[in-house]
Structures are given as structure tokens and as C-alpha cells.
Amino acid sequence: MVTKQSKIYIAGHRGMVGSAIWRQLSDQGYTNLLGFTSAEFDLKDQQAVKTFFEEKKPDVVIDAAARVGGILANSNYPYQFLMENMQIQNNLIDAALQNDVEKFIFLGSSCIYPKMAPQPLKEEYLLTDTLEPTNEWYAVAKITGIKTCEAIRKQFGKDYVSLMPTNLYGTHDNFDLKTSHVLPAMIRKFHEAKENDNAAVTLWGSGTPMREFLYVDDMAASVIFALENVLPEHLYNVGTGVDRTIRELAELIQKVVGHTGEILWDAEKPDGTPRKLMDVSKMHDLGWKHKVELEQGIVNTYNWFLENINNFKEVKMS
Ligand SMILES: NC(=O)C1=CN([C@@H]2O[C@H](COP(=O)(O)OP(=O)(O)OC[C@H]3O[C@@H](n4cnc5c(N)ncnc54)[C@H](OP(=O)(O)O)[C@@H]3O)[C@@H](O)[C@H]2O)C=CC1
Ligand SMILES: C[C@H]1O[C@H](OP(=O)(O)OP(=O)(O)OC[C@H]2O[C@@H](n3cnc4c(=O)[nH]c(N)nc43)[C@H](O)[C@@H]2O)[C@@H](O)[C@@H](O)C1=O
């Protein structure tokens, strides 16, 4: 039974998702949170992870640590996105099992589903067809994590559960233009172009793919929902259930930022999967639902970006 005094280790506690989880747990009176930076403790190091669990013996593990990036980073570094993510998650999950951790929350991604699966994507579509080529390595790593947690539920009866976030955005996001996801990249590009006399902004692909976006505070709330409840199944989609084209997203962000110049599209860059809208009815039926709609989330994120733009430690710009 998880209580406010349970020792909860948040792997990746400084990341966009991990820091939101930490903030919300602290605000809700959880007094025994553990977190370490990758400089203090490399989760790719199996022995270091084993020693950490033997010494610290957490009651709960929330895994928000991973090698994360947008479509270009995934496409350019397939080996790292596969190997690093398998090392991190396998070290954490196995050490948790060996040290009798009662609850483990694993974060996957909507890219685990087949590229051309029917939409909206249901959890049972996992492994029914081939993956999107631009991020299949990251997806295979995530699928391994999901199946590992499922095996532990089946064989050892432990409450290890996997949440599948849709595209996430928000405060403490990554704004580096080479490795970031589309939403923070657009905020930065439109902002810098506005400051440069409303110069034209060049975006990637055709603008026709569709994406669903969940604000990071809602994602953190879904993790705490999974922490405080024993969810009956092993895998749950977490999203808003609403998507839009990348072009529509660009026009919305352009409006929020106040850029008035031209938008150009670089067809040399990949579009990625045409659509990956998730069916979120299972989490809705259990009682979780998102609260922050897209335009408000973009306003919050842009305000945070402006407040922190000169603090490079906070805003990952390179
Ligand atoms: N952002 C998104 O759109 C989506 C994210 N997700 C998933 O959500 C989770 C969190 O993502 P997000 O918050 O965006 O990612 P971030 O990149 O913001 O944070 C990742 C965290 O992982 C930590 N980390 C990475 N490698 C190591 C390592 N070798 N050893 C120790 N710590 C490490 C980093 O620690 P440090 O800061 O100390 O270096 C960082 O805090 C991930 O599992 C990701 O796959 C799923 C779907 C969408
Ligand atoms: C969360 C999810 O995130 C990734 O999948 P993705 O959603 O395809 O990634 P993305 O956000 O980078 O792109 C979404 C769309 O947006 C277009 N796009 C336009 N202009 C820019 C731009 O300037 N930057 C970026 N990054 N994309 C742009 C881009 O061409 C694409 O069509 C994987 O990590 C995947 O594994 C995963 O889990």
C-alpha cells in the first residue's frame, strides 16, 4: 500500500516529466522522494543501479528516465535510442524486482503502436503490425519495457504498470532545435523569428501529419493516479483523445507567440507517422482525464520559456 511516507524513487526527476511528477508529489504531501542526476548516477551502469537499490530500498519506482528526442534525433541515433533505453529500463526494472519494490510505473510512448494501425489506437493493437521507421528503435526499447513489466505481473503478481504517453510538452521541455520535439521547436523558432523582424520560419516536413499533445502537468497527474490506485491491466494510453495537423499546430503557436512572418516547409525533413491518436477511454473509465487544453498549455509553456530563456541550465537550448 502506497502512503505519503512511502520511499518513492523518481528516475529522471530533473526531466520535463520527472520534474512535474516531483513537484506534484511534493505539493501533495509525499515526504520521502528520491532523485539523482545522470551525473551523480548513470542508470546505464548495471552495478551502480544494483548497489543503489540494495542501499536505498525504495518502496516505489517511477521511471521517467530515458534517452528522449524528436523525429530527427530518433532517426539519426537509432543505436543510442535502442541500447541506452533498454539499459536504463532493464537495470531499473530488474533491480526493483530483486529488491522487492512493491510498485513500478514505466513510461512508454505512443510510437509503440503499428504505423498504420486503425485510429484511435487501442492498447490491444500493440505488436499487431510493423512500426514507424523513424523511431522503431526507441519503440522496440519501450515495447521491451512494457513486456518486462507485464511478465513480472504475470509471474510474480507485482503491481508493475506501463503508461503510454502521447506527445508531451510543457515547462522544462527540451528546446534544442536538433533534438527537440515539434512543439518546443516551434515555440523557439517563432519566438526567435519574431525578435528578428518577423523573419520567415522554416518547419519540417509537409505539415500534414496529425499529432495529439498532452500538457506535462496532466501527464504527471496520470502517473500519480496510477501510483494511488491499483490499475487492473498492465498497459494504459494517456492522452487527450484529440489531435490536429502540424500545420494547425504551427498556426496556433504563431498566434500565441505573436509572429507575423511567413511559414515555410522543408520537404527534405521526415513527416514520420501520419497519425497516432490514442484511445484514452480506459484511463477515462478509471477516473483520470486531462485538464489543460492545448492553447492554454502553449501559453503556459511560452511564458515559462520567456521567464527562463536566459537561464540555460533551465532551458535546454543546446
Ligand atoms: N517528451 C515527450 O514527448 C514524451 C516522453 N515520453 C517518455 O517520458 C519519459 C520522460 O520524458 P521527458 O521528461 O520528456 O525526457 P527528458 O529528456 O526531459 O528527461 C529525461 C531524464 O532522463 C534522465 N536520464 C537520461 N539518461 C540517463 C542516464 N543514463 N542515467 C540517469 N538518468 C538519465 C535525464 O537525467 P539528467 O537530467 O540528470 O541528465 C533526464 O532527467 C521518458 O521515458 C520518455 O520516453 C513518452 C512520450 C512522449
Ligand atoms: C513523442 C514522439 O516524438 C517523436 O515522434 P514525432 O511525434 O514524429 O516527433 P516530432 O515531435 O519531432 O515531430 C512531429 C512532427 O512535427 C514535424 N515538425 C515540423 N517542424 C518541426 C521542427 O522544427 N522540429 C521537430 N522536431 N518536428 C517538426 C515533424 O516533421 C513531424 O512530422 C519520437 O520521439 C517518437 O518516438 C515519440 O515518442
Please tell me about this protein's structure.
Catalyzes the two-step NADP-dependent conversion of GDP-4-dehydro-6-deoxy-D-mannose to GDP-fucose, involving an epimerase and a reductase reaction. NADP(+) binds at residues 12-18, 107-110, 142, 165-168, 181. The active site is at 138 (proton donor/acceptor). It holds the Pfam family Epimerase. The record marks 109, 111 as: Important for catalytic activity. Strand 1, helix 1 and strand 2 (33-34) form a beta-alpha-beta unit. 41% of the residues lie in helices and 14% in strands. The model has no long low-confidence stretch (mean pLDDT 97). Strands 2-1-3-4-5-9 form a 6-stranded parallel beta sheet, sandwiched between helices. It is of the alpha/beta class and 318 residues long. It has 10 helices and 11 strands. It has a domain at 8-172 and 212-243 and 275-292: Rossmann fold, CATH 3.40.50.720. It has helices at 16-27, 46-56, 71-76, 78-98, 136-156, 182-195, 216-228, 246-257, 281-286, 294-308; strands at 8-11, 33-34, 60-63, 103-107, 159-165, 167-169, 201-204, 210-215, 235-238, 243-245, 263-266. Helix 4 (78-98) packs parallel to helix 5 (136-156) and helix 8 (246-257) packs across helix 10. The chain binds NADPH dihydro-nicotinamide-adenine-dinucleotide phosphate and ligand F7E. Residues 12, 14-18, 37-38, 42-44, 64-68, 88, 107, 109, 165, 167-168, 174, 181 line the site of NADPH dihydro-nicotinamide-adenine-dinucleotide phosphate.
